[in-house]
Amino acid sequence: MQSNQPIQSWIPPKIDEAASTHSKKYEEVILSNQLKQDGFDKGYQEGLIKAEKENQSQQAKLKNFISDLSKIKLELIQEAECALSDIVITVAKKIINHELTVNKTIIEEIIREMLGKIPSSNKVVKIKVHPDNLETIKKIIADETDKEMELSVDASLSIGCIKVKSDHTKVEYNMDEIFDSVIKKILI
């Protein structure tokens, strides 16, 4: 049974050294955990800063790499354009030279125009042509009766190149020079 006597006073239990030691160990654990957390937070922040710097460095390297690739691409395009232009020009020259060899009327028109520039007072006219154009020129100058024509071949001349010279007049038709002049005007 319980007695119904009122409690007169409460006496707290005695804290012995074991309890005090336990409390100190608890505080040490808390402090240790706090120090660990602080170290972790500091390391984490330092890692973020280092990673951000590394990220910026990698981005700068990537931008430089992309810039270098763009420059190389432009250089390749320019080189390809030049090479393609050279091929087109070479093919065009071959077509023109073939046409000058096959289509005799072109050479006939050129020589007639050149002879027309020689004053009628000049009686002797010297003509130099490429060997492939010789026969065509012979037929044309056979019709010229008012001037003495001296015809010679020069293998150093290109096909379609004609040089006409008289006492005071010199007329030259050089297909390569005309072609190059036209090409320069087109490419500018």
What topology emerges from the helices and strands here?
Elements: H1 17-102, H2 104-116, E1 124-129, H3 134-142, E2 148-153, E3 162-165, E4 170-173, H4 175-187
Parallel strand pairs: 1-2
Antiparallel strand pairs: 1-3, 3-4
The amount of beta strand, in percent, is: 5-15%
> Strand pairing plus helix content: what structural class?
alpha+beta
Query: How many separate domains make up the residues?
Result: 2
Q: Using only CA atoms, what is the Rg?
A: 51 Å
Low-confidence stretches: none
Q: Could you say what the CATH architecture of the largest domain is?
A: 2-Layer Sandwich
Number of strands: 4
- As for the CATH topology of the largest domain, it is hypothetical protein PF0899 fold
Lateral strand order in the biggest sheet: 2-1-3-4
- Average pLDDT works out at 83
Overall outline: rod-shaped
State the end-to-end distance. Answer: 122 Å
